[in-house]
Design brief:
single chain; mainly alpha; 4 helices; 52% helix
């Protein structure tokens, strides 16, 4: 799948990507670090950690790097994909978005 991907959904990308390519991307991420938004969270955490280290008082405990990384999924009740989709559509509509329905 070389070249520009355009506005493809994750579902379409995974449908086109075989298990071998998916495994290659996973191995690449294990070597180079997280891809996407997770990488930005880690980078921001490193900067925040450095600021705290430079400004902490003598004898104060230095928080672990993980303490600076946001945990986005704090829900205790897991939702089904259908429930998540319904919630996303409700938020989209509440923000003035339109829902376009088309058959595949």
């Amino acid at each position: 799948m070389a070249g520009h991907l355009g506005a493809r959904s994750v579902r379409h990308l995974l449908a086109d990507m075989g298990a071998a390519e998916l495994a290659e991307w996973r191995a690449y991420e294990q070597i180079t670090g997280p891809l996407g938004g997770a990488r930005g969270d880690v980078q921001a955490a490193v900067i925040a950690s450095a600021i705290v280290a430079a400004n902490r008082g003598k004898g104060q405990r230095m928080p672990a790097l993980a303490d600076f990384i946001p945990r986005w999924d704090r829900t205790r009740v897991r939702k089904t994909p259908e429930e998540l989709f319904k919630a996303a559509m409700a938020a989209h509509t509440a923000l003035g978005g339109e829902v376009n329905v088309r058959d595949n």
